[in-house]
Here is the input.
Amino acid sequence: MKNKYLFPAALFLLAVVLPFIVPEFWVHVLTEILIMGLFAASFNMIFGYMGQLTFGHAAYYGVGAYTTGLLIVKANVPLLVCLPLSMLSAGLCAAVLGYFCVKLRGIYFAILTMAFGQLVYYIIFQWYTFTGGDNGLQGIVPPAFLGKAANPYYFFTLIVVTLGMIALWIISASPFGYTMRAIRDNAERTEFIGINIQRYMHLNFIIAAMFAGLAGALWGPFNRSVAPDLCNWHHSGMPVFMTVMGGPSNFLGPLVGSAIYTMLMAFVTSFTEYWPMVSGIVIIVVVLVMPGGLLGLLGEKLPFLRQNEGNAKETKG
Amino acid sequence: MDITSIFTQFLSGLTYGTILFLVAAGLSLIFGVMNILNFAHAALWLMGAYFSYTFWNLMQEYSFAFWLSIPLAGFAAAAVGWFLEVVLIKRIYKRELHEQLLITYSIALILSDTIKLTWGVTNKLIVRPEMLRKPVFIFGSPLDSYFILVILSGAAVAIGLWWFLKYTRYGHIVKAAVYSREMVAALGIPIPRIYTWVFTLGIFLAGFAGGIQAPIGSITLGMDNAIIIQAFCVVVIGGFGSLLGTLVGSLIVGEVMSFTILFWPEGAMVLIFVITAAILIVRPWGLFGTPMRT
Amino acid sequence: MNFRKTTAFFVAVITCLFFFGMTGAMAAEPYNLGVALGLTGAGALYSADGVEGIKLAVEEINAKGGLLGQHKIELFIRDSQTKPDVGVREVKDLILRDKIRAVINDYSSAVAMAVKPIAQEYKVLHIASISNSENITMINPSPYTFQVVPNSYMQAKAAAVAIAKMAKQKGWKEFITIASDYEWGRSTQASAVKFLKETSPDLTLKKEFWPRLGETQFTSYITGIMAMKPDFVLGSVASNDNVAWMEQAKNYGFFDKIPYPGSLITVTELMLQAKTLTRGIIALTRAPFFAHMDNPMMADFVKNYRAKYNKYPSDWAVLCYDAVYALKQGVEKAKTIDTEKVKDAMKGMTVDLTRGRLTFRTIDNQLSCSSYTGTIADDPRYPFPIYKDIIEIKGSESERPESEILAARKAK
Here is the structure.
């Protein structure tokens, strides 16, 4: 049990040291890995722990990104205030939409989350006077104390993402987290022992959305702009890829998946514009050859990666 | 708003609905029988449009080129579909939902880039025969004369599928498979072979729809992105696996798009998704579907 | 044909991987020039031509030894996918990894506006050669961003001049606009409506339609507009969408019934829709090569371009070619490839381009170039229709007054 923390600690140490070694470009890539990693980890709260596939998670990421973007551009609100507000707005959005989503299971859950995701996307897309429509918002500048270099914002992101991941870890290891696993493994039986599964699922949906919102909030100042594409269904596919690549049954799987996906993209796009084709081939290979993701595969060989998960195999809803 | 303009707008909704129906019919068929949501459907549709352009381009000097290239596009796409089924899709029937979605999504990504590599980034234009270049007037409402062909093809596909499902042995097997694969298998019918042919038929419809789409405007990369989501909406509204549902769903989406553009242009897509979400919440199996599997 | 290309692609990828990192530095320091255009997405049609223009210009310059006769230009081409988010990432990547000194970007004004602050932050020249929203240079100006294409204000004014004249002749009262729903469409439409209201107060805007960028089905818009029976329609639809929109509208007999004056119909559309385009429309464009065939630089360019690509250059090829030559002349004036000095040298500089001798305005780095209107008609010299009775509206006649720019900046 002791070396359960070994792998996360090693990763964190690596994250602290790396920016001093690698060139600036890769610091940007690392920042992206962290932001997308938190996004994917929040997605995995629904996917890995609740056993439902959401194909509209980018909506909450986008709501978070736009909340911060709008607050900074229109009202000059400090970034540290924007972050909790972004979590709040994404959470509120999920409270309304998630209420309906958790009534459904399986493919219907996936399609409804996607439909809601597209709804949010089109509202942001069409509301030109407020959100800037297809143009997005420009001029989202990080606060002065973070300077203009890549490293300060990277470390800021690292702190926020680490705190976010710890919070998600605590939630997933709490009795609430174990209730989610129970619902995933056998919803009927869980209901029979007197648990209101819909309420639990709704709460979990909101939590996942809040952390997606937090990840989104970090994106705007990093990229200096936000665009409606952040919430459309293609972007919702990203955490699915990442989680499947890294391994959904491991808490750090989504983060590892984000690292693989983002670095691969940074590498491949430097010599070909056919990244979609390469990514498609990679995903097919991952799904067919290593269904448990990288950590699932390594976990068989290296026991210290394995977590005390009980039943790691998820069941369809 | 006089009656003529309302009728005109209705006609334009009807044509758009027909285009959607042609795309969604195969999607719905594949989902209904095989329980696989095919993200790559629109990419194959687009490929059909490009195939149709290539055939037309090769045979340009003959007057039948225009007419022949449309069904040929269907067959070419069907060949690609058959190949995909045998090589990839076959392996994922028993896999988890997310794995199926990821595989078909990846196929869509690969196909889009394959199209880009094969046909390049420039738009492709098919020049119609002289007789289809002028509008016709129906009760004073203008209609692009080609759309008569589009609507007739839609009707032909609908009737053909209905006849196939109702009166042929294979149609009966397919219909039975929508309800219970296990029962069909227990009767000694080779399910894998049925699946291969259903998938190929679905992709034939996609390619044919692409061929029909091609002469409407110009063929460009990325056209598939918008239509796949709308086709999903159609299938959800109508009900997975229901032919009648797909037809009704397409017409609803087409008409809603057509009329909201007049009164509330920004809201067209928002409204479609509100309808889709409402149907999913109230009746997840759609207007004409059956509440069977989840 | 497809298989061979696909195989070739894979071979290329593998070769790239193999030689990755093996390409070393050569004699004098090369000049790394980035290109980030929308090679996929709604802007693909225009962007592809732009890349061809750039490649030709770079080849010519390198054949003479490169910039200042010694710095060979190395091209780094990326796909912004016509999405602001992707554009920013690609440009960052170009700056940090490929160490570019200048970037030509983008098709989409929205992307150019998102890239502008990044270029400024890293002190890299940013040349807008297709995107033309005036907001790129008017609001939050960056000393690193230059625009070599007539901006949306200049274009709208040129269109308005043509339309106002016709409106008076024909007694037009009501009109409808249809414009792509993004930065360029929005800013062009807004400026044009403002001008029309100023020049002809009798005109009323009946309705605005905003099809999204990337729309392929225009039927409902077409019938919707026809049902409202406006006196004329003003269109600002671009690239792939413009072709789809005009094809579909034509088949509804739209152009026979409703005048469509002063809308963007570029050389791309003239060539692509050579057989189907309705003749006699009064249209607007940004850099038609046939308007400047008397300029030797343009004549040479057209000749070389045809030799290399076996087709005539579109506006976008012309503009992107000009972008490289503007940069070249900036470097020559600065006598160094140092970006800071080139940037300062280009401020207010007069350059010799295919479109003649033109000057960058000091206040906003906007090239004071012309817009062109004319009537679409067949010409025996070309296999596609061109503009007849071309009216060239000079930059000086169509630019936004400096006082208004300053006021807009203050308001922001």
Observations:
- Chain A is about 70% helix and 0% strand.
- The two ends of chain A are 31 Å apart (CA to CA).
